[in-house]
Amino acid sequence: MAHFTKATSLHDWLNQRLAIDTLRRVLATEYWIPKNINFLWAMGMVLAITFGLLLISGIFLLMYYQPNVNLAFDSVNYTIMQEVGYGWLWRHVHGVAASVVFLVIYIHMFTGIYYGSYKNGREIIWLSGMLLFVAFSAEAFSGYMLPWGQMSYWAGMVITNLFSGGSLHADGLVEWIRGDYVPAQAFLNRFFMLHVLLIPLVILGLIGLHFGALRIPHVNNQDGEEIDFDAEAKKYLSGDKAGSKVIRFANDFMSKDMMVVGIYLIFFFYLVFYHYDFAMDPVNFDPANGLKTPTHIYPEWYFLWSYEILRPFSTNVGLIAFAFAQVIFFMLPFLDRSPNAVPASRRGLFKYWFWAMLIDMIILTAMGKVPPEGLFSTIGLYAALTFIGLWIALPFITKFEKKV
Amino acid sequence: MKNSSRRGFMGKAFGAVAGVGAVASLYAMKRTWDPLPSVKAAGFTTLDMSAYKENELVTEKWRGKPIFVLKQNAEMVKKAQANPKDMERLIKIGNDYFMVCVGLCTHLGCIPGYNPDEQSFLCACHGGMYDFTAEVTKAPPPRGLDIPPFKIDGMKIVLGEEGPEYKKMLETGVTLKV
């Protein structure tokens, strides 16, 4: 056993048993952050805070929510909204955060793409981030089921039908996933379990991995500069704080993070109190009815781009294109063949690739929302083909990029 | 050397025990997600076919899914007889012909609406169309509406049981198993 001495203070008592000084050094005061990074790097902290809001509001919703096909709708729309004191607050925080979290994830992803933060030793950060995106998607979908409204029911029907694999007709698999022939009690219960326990556990684990993956390669910076973190840290610790290219994470860099978080929270609670309805689909205020389909089924805004990639094609081709869209972002570090990890503006054709991809995904999102008719479905088809084309082109245009 | 082979053996023995346990628990997990016996047992619905009116779509429920029943009138039967593919999709009960099918679009599972004047179905979600025998007439749906397993019992049919007429439909490819 380690040698313990009589503690001189509570701090010392804890330090002997928990090594809190070492912990603080590793996690905060000697976790080095480059100085030249802008507000876009605060999105990680914004996401962590939003996840915290989702967790806390979710816990309070859980106290009155009933995972029963006969009671779920009223437990949300009557009990929580009307009876429970401040129940509406938790629901609006949860609903708005679920939507906004995807906006911030997309900003976080495109920041990473723009600055090449997935390259040269940072691949695991990118991969764990993409796994987090998938886990958040599953979390969002399973949560969307719970109020058991019309959109919940039919989203459950359509999304689980995707697992029949088109012409493979794996209907047995679909029934196994649902635990019934249609979304029903078994389906609601297991998606409730996924939403409140299993997927959140996975997310927490992945957040740990995502943070851990930053430790060795460190955070990238605005100029794509390769910083010798050991040397710069030594400079900082010896007193040359102005000359060092890095600063401590806590409390120095955190103050900038928290500034951005503060502005974000004002925007967030503005939405919660004044525009909560943007995250609520009107169709979902009709109770689930297995004998009546809503005229126009569409997912939440953050899934529209991949929905639109599925839509313009025949069933099988659509499913393949959809699967392609789901996995291709994982491949980014390996498809980008250029040695440069610098901002897109200083690279060759990649500069145009980045903006083309961003604009194409915005077009896909817009087309996914409108009914698939006439001009809209033509634009949707070309946007989907452009998406696939851009990814196929990526290794070629980056291969010939000159080292900067 | 002796010790390390002993550790190796213990490692392998543990691996074997854990492997058996892992496979067994995966099987248990798979079975836990299977539909319950009560869900499966409730998968039968009996319909009295003498109660339906001609060219009036009635939506019944079987396994939680909407079931379209459309009694064909003389004009529709005549039209169907001109096209043997249409005729194969109809079920003869007594002297009447019926279209019975799962009312979920074969594209992505929405419920198409019936227009009795045009005697056709339209799935508003993605524009798929079907005729009065629920055969597809306009893509994206890849095939006509699926016919649920049925067994004819006098003037009644039992949905969920596979009678000879249904088995023939499966063999000739008129419908897929649902």
TrEMBL record, chain A:
<dbReference type="InterPro" id="IPR048259">
    <property type="entry name" value="Cytochrome_b_N_euk/bac"/>
</dbReference>
<dbReference type="GO" id="GO:0016491">
    <property type="term" value="F:oxidoreductase activity"/>
</dbReference>
<dbReference type="GO" id="GO:0009055">
    <property type="term" value="F:electron transfer activity"/>
</dbReference>
<keyword id="KW-0813">Transport</keyword>
<feature type="transmembrane region" description="Helical">
    <location>
        <begin position="124"/>
        <end position="146"/>
    </location>
</feature>
<keyword id="KW-0679">Respiratory chain</keyword>
<feature type="transmembrane region" description="Helical">
    <location>
        <begin position="258"/>
        <end position="276"/>
    </location>
</feature>
<feature type="transmembrane region" description="Helical">
    <location>
        <begin position="39"/>
        <end position="65"/>
    </location>
</feature>
<keyword id="KW-0812">Transmembrane</keyword>
<dbReference type="InterPro" id="IPR005797">
    <property type="entry name" value="Cyt_b/b6_N"/>
</dbReference>
<feature type="transmembrane region" description="Helical">
    <location>
        <begin position="96"/>
        <end position="117"/>
    </location>
</feature>
<keyword id="KW-1133">Transmembrane helix</keyword>
<dbReference type="InterPro" id="IPR036150">
    <property type="entry name" value="Cyt_b/b6_C_sf"/>
</dbReference>
<keyword id="KW-0249">Electron transport</keyword>
<protein>
    <submittedName>
        <fullName>Cytochrome bc complex cytochrome b subunit</fullName>
    </submittedName>
</protein>
<feature type="domain" description="Cytochrome b/b6 N-terminal region profile">
    <location>
        <begin position="10"/>
        <end position="223"/>
    </location>
</feature>
<dbReference type="InterPro" id="IPR027387">
    <property type="entry name" value="Cytb/b6-like_sf"/>
</dbReference>
<dbReference type="InterPro" id="IPR016174">
    <property type="entry name" value="Di-haem_cyt_TM"/>
</dbReference>
<dbReference type="Pfam" id="PF00033">
    <property type="entry name" value="Cytochrome_B"/>
</dbReference>
<dbReference type="GO" id="GO:0022904">
    <property type="term" value="P:respiratory electron transport chain"/>
</dbReference>
<feature type="domain" description="Cytochrome b/b6 C-terminal region profile">
    <location>
        <begin position="239"/>
        <end position="404"/>
    </location>
</feature>
<dbReference type="GO" id="GO:0016020">
    <property type="term" value="C:membrane"/>
</dbReference>
Automatic annotation (TrEMBL), chain B:
<dbReference type="InterPro" id="IPR006311">
    <property type="entry name" value="TAT_signal"/>
</dbReference>
<dbReference type="InterPro" id="IPR006317">
    <property type="entry name" value="Ubiquinol_cyt_c_Rdtase_Fe-S-su"/>
</dbReference>
<dbReference type="InterPro" id="IPR019546">
    <property type="entry name" value="TAT_signal_bac_arc"/>
</dbReference>
<dbReference type="GO" id="GO:0046872">
    <property type="term" value="F:metal ion binding"/>
</dbReference>
<dbReference type="Pfam" id="PF00355">
    <property type="entry name" value="Rieske"/>
</dbReference>
<keyword id="KW-0812">Transmembrane</keyword>
<comment type="subunit">
    <text>The main subunits of complex b-c1 are: cytochrome b, cytochrome c1 and the Rieske protein.</text>
</comment>
<dbReference type="InterPro" id="IPR005805">
    <property type="entry name" value="Rieske_Fe-S_prot_C"/>
</dbReference>
<feature type="domain" description="Rieske">
    <location>
        <begin position="90"/>
        <end position="159"/>
    </location>
</feature>
<dbReference type="InterPro" id="IPR014349">
    <property type="entry name" value="Rieske_Fe-S_prot"/>
</dbReference>
<dbReference type="InterPro" id="IPR036922">
    <property type="entry name" value="Rieske_2Fe-2S_sf"/>
</dbReference>
<keyword id="KW-0500">Molybdenum</keyword>
<dbReference type="InterPro" id="IPR017941">
    <property type="entry name" value="Rieske_2Fe-2S"/>
</dbReference>
<protein>
    <submittedName>
        <fullName>Ubiquinol-cytochrome c reductase iron-sulfur subunit</fullName>
    </submittedName>
</protein>
<keyword id="KW-0472">Membrane</keyword>
<dbReference type="GO" id="GO:0008121">
    <property type="term" value="F:quinol-cytochrome-c reductase activity"/>
</dbReference>
<dbReference type="GO" id="GO:0051537">
    <property type="term" value="F:2 iron, 2 sulfur cluster binding"/>
</dbReference>
<keyword id="KW-0408">Iron</keyword>
<keyword id="KW-1133">Transmembrane helix</keyword>
<keyword id="KW-0479">Metal-binding</keyword>
<keyword id="KW-0001">2Fe-2S</keyword>
<dbReference type="GO" id="GO:0016020">
    <property type="term" value="C:membrane"/>
</dbReference>
